[in-house]
Each structure stands twice: as C-alpha cells, then as structure tokens.
Amino acid sequence: MSFTVQDYKKGQPRWCPGCGDHFFLASLHKAMAEIGVEPWNNAVISGIGCSSRLPHYMATYGMNTIHGRAAAIATGCKVANPDLTVWQVSGDGDGLAIGGNHFIHANRRNINLNMILLNNRIYGLTKGQYSPTSPRGFVSKSSPYGTVEDPFRPAELCFGARGHFFARAVATDAAGTVDILKAAYNHKGAAVCEILQNCVIFNNGTHDAVYSKEGRAKNAIYVEHGKPLIFGENREFGLMQEGFGLKIVKIGENGVTEKDILIHDAHCEDNTLQLKLALMGNGDGFPVALGVIRDVDAPTYDDSVTAQIEEVKATKKYHNFAELLETNDIWEVK
Amino acid sequence: MAEKLEVKELAEVAVRFSGDSGDGMQLAGNIFSTVSATVGNSISTFPDYPADIRAPQGSLTGVSGFQVHIGAEMVYTPGDKCDVLVAMNAAALKTQYKYAKPGASIIIDTDSFQAADLKKAAFATEDYLGEMGIDPDRVIACPITTMVKDCLADSGMDVKAMLKCRNMFALGLVCWLFDRDLNIAFNFLKEKFAKKPGVAEANIKVIQAGYDYGHNTHSSVANVYRIETKNKVPGRYMDITGNKATAYGFIAAAEKAGLKLYLGSYPITPATDVLHELSKHKSLGVTTVQCEDEIAGCASAVGASFAGALGVTSTSGPGICLKSEAMNLAVIMELPLVVLDVQRGGPATGLPTKSEQTDLLQALFGRNGESPMPVIAATSPTDCFDAAYTAAKMALEHMTPVILMTDAYVANGSAAFKLPNLAEYPAINPPYVPEELKGSWTPYLRNPETGVRYWAVPGREGFQHILGGLEKDNKTGAISTDPENHDLMTHLRQEKIDKIQVPDLEVLGDKNDADLLIVGFGGTYGHLHAAMDELRAQGKKVALAHFKFINPLPKNTAAVLSKYKKVVVAEQNMGQLAAWLRMKVDNFTPEQFNQVKGQPFVVSELVEAFNEIINK
After folding, report:
1. Which of A28, A108, B323, B616 is deepest in the core (most CB within 10 A)?
2. Do B284 and A318 touch (CB under 8 A)?
3. Tens-of-pLDDT digits for all 334 residues of chain A?
4. Matching fold, domains B2-227 and B239-424
C-alpha cells in the first residue's frame, strides 16, 4: 500500500501566518508519505505550546497532551505497543524546560521515538517569555532587562544524556527537513531532530542567518555521513581538526586540498567531533551544521524489553495467572 | 515438672518476633504463620520495620518486629498486643515490650543481653528485667546464640552462617509453645532452600533444637497454648501481603481482559513492592518501566493505555501529588488507568513506613478543574486482590482513571489467601469501538446507557483520532472553547462516573437494632470489625458499615447512614470520609473518631471510645 501527502493531512492549521510550524508540518506530511507507514500505525504525541497543536493536523492517531510530558507519554505508548511508529513533538519550552527530565531520560533509555524539537527560542502560546534556548541577555516580556542565564544547546543535552541520534534542519528548508525526518525514522532508538523555526510575532528573525536558501549557503554546512565537511557559496571552505577543536580552511589556499578536509562520521560512537559540529554557530564564525550529525546504532529500550520478556518466557515455567499462583508455598485445608 | 505445666486452650493468640533488622524475624514469623494456617487457623500478620535502612546492630532504632495473630476462628487484625514476645536482643526487649500483654510470655536470647548490648539498648543496670518491671517467671531466658553454635558445631559452617539460624531456634521454641507440627516447617524450609540443601538442613536442625529445648526445660514456662481450628474453609491457600495481592489483581485483570499489563512507576515506600512483584513476572508478559520520576510513571501509563494496554501506576505519599496532572489528562481523554496509592504518613515525606488514611480527599478532589474519578479502598491484605481486579475492570469498562487506595498497614500485612479461580471472576469487556462505526465515529461518541465513550486503539484502520488535554467538542472531537459544550462535557464526565454500578453497602452485626453504627473505609476494616465483635460480646448493640467503594458511593449509603440513632465515622485522618459523607448525605452529622499516629488502630482504644459514644 502506498500513501500520498493527502493521506496524512487533516484540518486547517491555525498558527500565525508565516510561523515555522506551517513549514515543518508540510515536511512531516511529506516525510510520512515517503516513509509509507500506514496513517493508523503512526502516533503523533505532543505536549502543550504552539507547535504542540501539530497532531490536530495529522490524519494519524495522536495526542496533544499536557505541558512537558510528551516524551514520557510517548515512552509508555511505544513500550506498550512497539508496532506503532511514534513521533513526539515538542517546542523548546515544552521539551527542554518543563519536560527536560523526560527529554534526557528518553534519550538515555534510547526509546525508539522520533523526537521533534521545534526550536524558536521563545514561549509563543503564553505570548512571549524567554525560553531555555533563548540567548543570554534576551529581552522578552519576562526579561525586560535581558536574561541573566545561559541557554541550553539541545545537542549538548542530547549527547549528555547519551543520545545516539541528533539531526538539525531549518523549518523553511523542506528537503533538508524531510531528509532528517526520514533518517530519524530509519534510526532505531531515540532520534532527536532539532528544527530551527521562526516565531513571527515574538521572536522574529531569530534564525535569520540560516532561514533563507541564500543565508544557508553562506552560514550553514550540510553534513552528510562519509562526505567531506565542505561549505560556502562556492563550496570553497572546509573544516579541519586543530588541537581539541575545529578550524575553517579555504580549499586551495596554503596547500589545503579537498583531501585534507575532515570526513563526517555520523556513525562514530565517540561523539566528540559530532558535538563540535553541533555546537558551531554564527556567533563564532562557524557555519550552523544541518543534517544528520550523529546516528549511531545501539540497543533500544523497547526492543530490549520485548527481548527480555521472550527470554524470561522461555526460561520460566509459568505463563498465566493460574500457573503463577502455583509458584507460591501453598497449603491445603481439608 | 510436667504436672505444673498448664495447657491453655485459647481462641486466639498473637506472637511478636523482634530483633535486629538482619535477624530474620520476618522469615521466622512467616513460617510460624504458615504452619498455623496449614492446620486451618486463621492468620493475620504485620511487619513493623524501622525507617532506617540499616541502623547499627543492637541499636534501638534498628529493631524490626513481625507480629503474627492466629485464631481458631476468623482473626481480623494482627492483634493489639502479643501473648508471646520474642526479643532476640536487649534493644528489642526495650522497644517491643510495650506491645506485650500483661502476663505475656517473653523469649529472650541471654547471649544478646551482655553489658555492651545493654548499653546500646540504654539500660542503666544489668537487671534489665527489673528495670522494665518484667516478672522473671514469665521469661524463657535461653542462651540461643550459644545453643545454635553448639547445635551446628559439626556442620562445617562458619560462625556468621551459624548465627543466621538464631531465628530458627526461637521459631522452634514458639512451635513447641503452641504445639505445632514441625514437619510443616521442615517442608517449608526444604522448599524455600531447595537449591541450598545444606542451609535447609541447618535450619531444620536448629528448629528441632529450639523445640527440644522448650520441651526439656518447660519448667520456666507457665503456659503452653493450643489453638484449635473451627469453621475451616477447605481449599488451597497461600500467605499473601497486600502489595503482592494488589500486583496479582492487576495481573489477573489484564489476563481476563486479554490486554498487556503496563506499570509505570517510581520507587517509593511503601508502594515499591508492587513494582518489585510485577517486575518479576515477565513470563506473563508484564511490562514494568521504572521511570525517571512519579510524573513520568503516571504519564507513561496514560501513553500505554492510549496504545491499548492496561496502564497502571503505583505510588505513595508525595508521589500522588506529582501524578495528579497526568491523572487529569486521563480524566479528560477518558482513557483507562489505575492509580495505586499506598497511603503512608504525611504531609510531605512524613512517616514513610507508617500507615494513614490521609489521602482520601486528595483522591476525590486533588486535581484542577472538575475531575471526577472513581475511588476504591481495599479493606484487607487479601481484599487487595479483588480491589485491584475491580479497579482495573472499572477503568477498562468505563474508560476512566480509577484510584485504588490501600495503606502501609494493608500493603505490608499478610493473611491466608484462598487461591482464586480466575474463571469465576467477572469478564472484563472494554468498550472497543464497533467496526460498523467506521466513517461516522468520533472520539466522544458515547454509549447512551453508560455514558462511556468507545475505545479505538491505534493500529486500527479508519479510526484515527486525536485526544488531548484541551476540552473537545462533544460531537466532532475537535478542540472547543464553546461555553455550552464545556458545560455539557463537564456534566457528561461526571454522569459517567455517577452511573458506575457498585455493590450495596453491607451492614454487619446488629443491623436491625444497633445503638451505634460504626463507619469506616479501607484498611481499618479488621480493627473496626474486631471492635464491633468485642462490643457485642459485652452485650452492646453495634453494627459496622465499611466502605470499599467511595466514589461513586453505594446507592444505599444514605439509607444505611440515616437508619441508626448514633453513627461514628472512625478513620486514620482528621475526618475526611466523614466530610465526604456529609457532603453526599443530607443531614448527616456523625460522631467522629480520628487518630493519626501512623500505627494501626488499637481495638481496645476503639472499644473504649465507642462505649463512650453509646453511653453518651
């Protein structure tokens, strides 16, 4: 059976015109159609926030739950019914502030979830407070003089929690978004996709450097496993290792050739260089890394639970309630 | 000397085994209760653990007790005070003597009453019996440690291993005192240590030595007791704690419903044993997830229910506060969920190992918005099985979260459990959406009779839908802030719970002409029943109405409560059930008996208080 984008679409989204959520939703529909899992075998589970409205526009099974708990609810859903493809959708406030604990533990346990983090660095639904991804000094309604705290960098949290998959895309980049969503689906285990998206009302322009195609050509690098880390409008720059860090080099200058450029290894167990890529940003002169940054195989929690149940079933002699009773010290009163 | 020995025939007797946490008092108590139950005595047991993980050896805070109550006829409680106290060291005697009846026999290991032991137990002199005012004639003072070492001298065991058998010597003595058949104990040990025959053999040898010691030196004992058995109910039995019975109830319900059992939980005393128990039974397909916090325990269980499993979460104390948010999600999404609250002393961390009934109003009301949830309270360790089964059945058939309340006393206490036959239990039929509704079905379409919405489990083609924490339109299932719709949905959610059928409230005792009706709920059933029996034995006209179903209340509640001149609501809180009943029954103004000590009620105190009310 094959499906089209229409098979996954439902209703009329009510986000603000120009909101990044619109772009992402279209990409998710497209990715799902390309993946081809039947709509009724997908569950899309969100928390609360603007972006968490997303399941309402999916013709799949879905839940728009409570603030912060999407990853925990998705965990129960996947473990109880591993046949379902589960997409967990959260914003930066939902996923990393109130839901931070569930975010890290879903990664640590490696539940086979596609975890979408729609990062606009702001609380939109509550009308404009700084979020845990807002930069230090960020001025908002709840920080009129600027925040005095540092933000989370989602990749760092994911890696710190021993996450095995991290990818990033810009909401307006449909092809890039569809690519990482498909990669997340194909990855067995918790797969974090950070979507950089704009909030036109409360944080307009937050991802401006990479929001347009031209911007990405200048300010982003598409990473691909097994390919050299080359970027620039004319693919004239590359990344090389230097000491404990990375450096930008110009190909053809100082004897640097394409062969000298670092080859991206998303499958490397050691996440050191992947983290370096993930943390690159515009402020430091480095390009923003887009694409699949880390994608390492590891046993998933839900598979392991199922395997353990099968293993114990094979070794234990009781398989129903009546047999369970017989495992106790029993006496008879005549 | 034998002629001096008085054989007392008793209707019931309570034995309290006490010692260091590591002394194996619970095992000794368990074997004694099993041996007694095997001959058909009724049993009720209760462990009293220290809150410390492992207090220093011989210290006052490290004493753990295990009380076994056996009776010729039904016993309802572990007994207020004991007839025999086993104190394996000085600290145990010091802290546990208060649980002994006047005239109780006391068994002590004199080897653990040396100067250093006495100092640790804060005795001022070496005359510890005198200090405590204990008549030496009532004491079986035996050098248990020495005798165990002698007994096992040829076993090749090291001293540490030998000393682990001290509890068996005490058990042997107690078995002699109650004329118990040692073969039953031997069989128990052979089965328990089937893989370690050497350990079984050593334990058996020591029990026999203890028994023989009693037999040979009984001059020091005034009484030997016999408990005959009356009103035996034939059948096969096992010993079960409330927590284990609860776990078994969930397993049985999931099997009956043909669903996977999912437990999302977080370790917390005294509920953790349910997590332990369910985690063992993977061969039955039980899935347990030890979550990152209480919130995730409940939230993941909601997720599991959405996915088509029987979602359960278990907790105690402050854990129930953390779960209320996700419980409310299950209320508005109308998904099945069982929330087990093993009540303990509060507020906050409170008294983690002690028992109270102080969460009732929280269970009924402790959530934002209008959030009706059925509440069921188990009345005894064995009733936990039926209560858990019923809670799961109610949740699944009425598409609602259900709170199952037990407490530390019921959860840790044990009793003989007649093996249930699952075939005799009522079927569990979740309201799966009928296939013919494909195309026209919306999530909040209800069965007109029960008010229950249909369940469409993900994976079914043509029933894709979205649920959520936002209010939904009754017809379309889309998000709605329409005032009329919200009012309607609020009423529908309430009516659905109100329509749940629960059994009528049963009145025990002098149901037609009682001068006093005792009312309670949950885990105090045994104590209130025993108090009623005692009052009736004194010639008073007393009845008992005990609530297991608290929301919705039984239909005959108002009729029962308004039938009697005097009613006392007795509960281990400040009057939460009384408040609920006053809210639900017009002109109901009961007397109240409220005690919040973290300990089970004491029957004699209840009798005194109820007598006062009768005589007022």
Report:
1. B323
2. yes
3. 899 999 999 999 999 999 999 999 999 999 999 999 999 999 999 999 999 999 999 999 999 999 999 999 999 999 999 999 999 999 999 999 999 999 999 999 999 999 999 999 999 999 999 999 999 999 999 999 999 999 999 999 999 999 999 999 999 999 999 999 999 999 999 999 999 999 999 999 999 999 999 999 999 999 999 999 999 999 999 999 999 999 999 999 999 999 999 999 999 999 999 999 999 996 889 999 999 999 999 999 999 999 999 999 999 999 999 999 999 988 888 8
4. no
From the options 3.40.47.10, 1.10.3720.10, 3.40.50.920, 3.90.550.10, give the CATH code of B507-615.
3.40.50.920
Chain B: give the shortest CA distance to residue A79, in Å.
Answer: 7
**Which residues of B are less than 8 Å from A40 in CB distance?**
458-464
Domains of chain A: 5-227+263-299 (3.40.50.970)
Q: ipTM more than 0.95?
A: yes
- Contact B308/A at CB under 8 A: yes
Q: Rounded to 5 degrees, what are φ and ψ at B585? A: -120, 120
Q: Which superfamily is assigned to B239-424 in CATH?
A: Thiamin diphosphate (ThDP)-binding fold, Pyr/PP domains (3.40.50.970)
CA angle (B588 as vertex; B584, B594 as ends), nearest 5: 95
Q: Which residues on A lie below 8 Å from B184 (Cβ)?
A: 331
Question: By the 8 A CB rule, do B90 and B118 touch?
Answer: yes
Q: A66 and B469: CB-CB below 8 Å?
A: yes
B72: left (phi over 0), alpha (psi -120 to 50) or beta: alpha
Of A62, A80, A102, which has the smallest distance from its Cβ to B260's Cβ? A80
Q: B203-217 b/e with 16+ CB inside 10 Å = b?
A: bbbbbbbbbebbeee
Selecting from A40, A76, A316 the residue whose C-beta is nearest the C-beta of B299 gives A76
CA distance B173 to chain A (A): 23
Query: Does residue A254 sit in helix, strand or coil?
Result: coil
Is B282:A308 a contact under the CB 8 Å cutoff? Answer: yes
Cβ under 8 Å to A: B residues 364-383: none
CATH assignment, B2-227: 3.40.920.10
Residues 6+ apart with CB under 8 A from B12: B69, B70, B71, B72, B73, B75, B79, B227
Domain locations along chain B: 2-227, 239-424, 507-615
Which residues in chain B have their CB less than 8 angstroms from residue A72's CB? 291-292, 295-296, 299-300, 303
Cα angle A314, A318, A323 (rounded to 5 degrees) comes to 165
Q: Map residue B83 onto helix, strand or coil.
A: strand
Chain B residue at shortest CA distance from A14: B479
- Bridge partners (DSSP) of residue B302 are none
Chain A and chain B share a number of CB contacts under 8 A equal to: 212
In degrees to the nearest 10, what's the CA dihedral of A298, A303, A304, A310? -150
Contacts of A81 in chain B (CB under 8 A): 304, 307-309, 458-459
